[in-house]
Automatic annotation (TrEMBL):
GO biological process annotation, one example: carbohydrate metabolic process
Protein name per its UniProtKB record: Glycogen debranching enzyme (Alpha-1,6-glucosidase)
Gene source species: Micromonospora coriariae
Pfam family name, one: GDE_N_bis
Record-annotated Putative glycogen debranching enzyme N-terminal domain positions: 10-192
Residue ranges of domain Mannosylglycerate hydrolase MGH1-like glycoside hydrolase in the record: 389-591
């Protein structure tokens, strides 16, 4: 859906998307409404005065969890001489509260009929996304003395929206109304509380309480202030860096999601509107991006993913022992197994990335206790790589869905149906193996060896993992290298034939360390060359490939998160200039999105469009796009844990000026990093 004509506020996986008047008039296919736990709890929320719709003068996006709308009666015209002002103040926090204020500017009294139309279709978010609203249960509306109860029941699955008001209205099955008399210059207001409630199969109470009453709204504000205060401070001569960083911090706060089993601890939800829930891959990669700034997210993410790690073979959920989940949902379609996300394990990369994050987290934090706590889960993840993921038996990670009805076909990060192809544009058969996942597996083995040797007291296992990693590296460099193009194939088919297209995935290979050093320079040239690099960033698929499309979801768009890991990979192999070029392009693009990078944007050449072209259905905010500026800061400053200290080796883009990152947390306490221009080495100051 378009971004410009809707207002969004959110708190974790509860969010409201509405018109610029504050009204909600949802259709089955449109993600407007009040959503929580993958259910739309309000699909109609329309305010009228004397039967007349209201016109928006302006709105304020106060914080990620609140907004204010300034309205007048009547149609928009240059000749409005409004005698009434209507202010709607809305805050979301689990559910939401709305304050309505009406002011009479006339010299004579007025009598008003104020009405709110209220309804809910209780659509599952998957039904909205798929544009299919097929409710199999009963929708009801119950008028009580002091509230309106909207509900949906299907067996022992129940969802309810409970509406009450500080000024008693007249409730009916379709909303509620007030009769108000206002003297000249008099003000009237009321606070409307909207509480959502859920009872799941087995009568598991998932009540989402009112968290935005008075002091609770202040608690949200104080929580945000503490979140920002605890994070490092970024100052820069180039204003785009510090402002984009601040926007990212606030969006990360908004996207924090507290799974029902965590008792208040949070991890990053993937993105609004479709993915406001736990994703293995997205949460892990976001944590890797944000580790130097918000390390607490990593600990929570590792723990919850470990707790939900696969333990059996389940074809419906594509579950294996040791496999890390892909996605967790709480809506009706998951509850009744009409789709498998309860949780669903159809991700081929989350499992090796789990080990990568655990090692990287320890390197930053020194949290040995967590490494020991998650030893068995880490061993199970490493076992999955060789025992269950190698579907062909040739030492690579492959994927093929066992749930052929509702499972994901492509289980890599480029998971759209046509993202994996040969150079002639045809699609390969299954199973498939994509290149970056082999890099993740290599990295997981190398890092797992360090954990085994230093913390698990198992040097034999460490030696085994290192041997396996080296064998994988040799095998990979033999089988995946496209000799005539001098890059690595995007994927292999089950016969070993290369999907020999040039793609952004080669940058992830640099990040993982699986690339032979003598081949790295050619990859760097490709990544900043004209087929892949647009001036804004690296395209997912190179110009000139058969399926290239600058606005194709994974076939030519630019994904900011993808670029952040590419830049990190270039730094790993010493290509600091190229990494800085990519960082500069992405940060330039961020300024056109008010510092909030979207999920993806068009892969058009910079000199052609002069500005980054927004992808029409991109999620925003999205966690790993929000994490992108933070990883680019790490990359530009060359921040790396080294023997218990933080090393800094900055390489800034031209024209960037001075950057300061103050109070970087880690096992070293808190330290500061500074860089200017082409400084090659910068000492730290406490």
């Amino acid at each position: 859906m378009g971004q410009s004509n809707t207002i969004r506020i959110l708190d974790g996986n509860t969010f409201v998307v509405c018109e610029d008047t504050g009204d909600i008039e949802a259709t089955p296919s449109e993600p407007t409404g009040l959503f929580s736990i993958d259910t739309r709890f309000l699909s109609t929320w329309v305010l009228t005065v004397n039967g007349e719709r209201l016109n928006s003068l302006s709105f304020d996006d106060l914080q990620y969890f609140e907004s204010r709308f300034f309205l007048v009666p009547g149609m928009a015209t240059h000749y409005i001489d409004a005698k009434l002002s209507i202010i709607r103040e809305r805050a979301v926090g689990g559910s939401f509260r709305e304050q309505i204020t009406i002011l009479n500017h006339d010299e004579k009294p007025v009598d008003l009929e104020i009405r709110m139309e209220a309804a809910s279709d209780f659509a599952d978010l998957f039904q909205v996304k798929d544009e299919i609203l097929n409710k199999k249960g009963e929708i009801y509306s119950e008028v009580e003395a002091d509230r309106l109860r909207l509900g949906y029941r299907r067996g022992n699955f129940r969802r309810e929206t409970i509406i009450s008001s500080s000024v008693a209205p007249r409730y009916d099955s379709k909303g509620f109304a007030y009769t108000v008399h206002l003297e000249p210059n008099e003000q009237w207001d009321t606070a409307i509380d909207v509480q959502t409630q859920a009872i799941g199969p087995g009568d598991r109470d998932l009540r989402i309480g009112l968290r935005v009453h008075g002091g609770e709204r202040l608690a949200l504000q104080h929580d945000l202030e503490k979140w920002i205060a605890d994070a490092p401070k970024v100052n820069s001569e180039h204003g785009r860096v510090s402002s984009t960083y601040q926007r990212s911090l606030i969006d990360l706060a908004a996207l924090r999601f507290s799974p029902l089993s965590l008792g208040g601890a949070t991890l990053p939800a993937a993105g609004l509107p479709w993915f406001m829930t736990m994703f293995g891959r997205d949460s892990i990669l976001t944590c890797l991006q944000t580790l130097p700034f918000t390390p607490q997210l990593s600990k929570t993410t590792l723990r919850i993913l470990a707790a939900l790690q696969g333990s059996r073979f389940d074809d419906f959920r594509d579950e294996d022992p040791g496999r890390i989940l892909h996605e967790m949902r709480y809506g009706e379609t998951a509850a009744f197994e009409e789709q498998p996300h309860s949780p669903y394990y159809g991700s081929v990369d989350a499992t090796p990335l789990f080990v990568v994050l655990l090692d990287e987290y320890e390197r930053w934090s020194g949290d040995v206790a967590l490494v020991k706590e998650l030893e068995q889960e880490s061993r199970a993840a490493l076992k999955w790589i060789d025992s269950y993921a190698d579907l062909i038996g040739n030492g690579y990670i492959w994927y093929e869905r066992r749930n052929t009805d509702t499972g994901l076909e492509n289980q890599c990060w480029k998971d759209s149906w046509d993202s994996i192809s040969y150079s002639d544009g045809t699609l390969p058969p299954f199973p498939r193996a994509t290149c970056e996942v082999q890099g993740y597996a290599y990295d997981a083995k190398v890092r797992g060896a360090r954990l085994a040797r230093e913390f698990w007291g198992d040097p034999e296992f460490a030696d085994q993992l290192e041997r396996e990693a080296e064998e994988l590296k040799q095998r990979f460099n033999r089988d995946w290298w496209v000799a005539d193009g001098e890059y690595y194939a995007l994927a292999l088919d089950p016969d070993g034939r290369q999907c020999d297209v040039l793609s952004s995935n080669i940058g992830h290979l640099l990040w993982s360390g699986i690339v032979e050093p003598e081949r790295a320079e050619k990859l760097a040239q490709h990544l900043v060359g004209p087929r892949l690099f647009t001036g804004w960033g690296v395209r997912t698929l190179a110009e000139g490939e058969a399926r290239y499309n600058p606005i194709g979801y994974h076939n030519g768009t630019i994904w900011p998160f993808d670029n952040s890991f590419i830049a990190w990979g270039l730094r790993r192999y010493g290509f600091t200039e190229e990494a800085a070029t990519i960082a500069s392009g992405i940060l330039d693009a961020a300024t056109y999105f008010d510092g909030r990078l979207p999920e993806a944007f068009g892969g058009y050449p910079r000199e052609l469009t002069k500005f980054p072209v927004e992808y029409p259905t991109a999620c925003s905010p999205q966690a790993w796009s929000t994490g992108t500026p933070l990883l680019l800061l790490r990359t530009m400053l060359g921040l790396e844990p080294h023997e218990g200290h933080l090393a800094v080796d900055p390489q800034l883009p031209r024209g960037m000026g001075r950057i300061e990152v103050l109070d970087i947390p880690g096992r070293w306490g808190r330290v500061d990093a500074f860089a200017r221009g082409r400084i090659d080495l910068q000492e730290l100051s406490d």
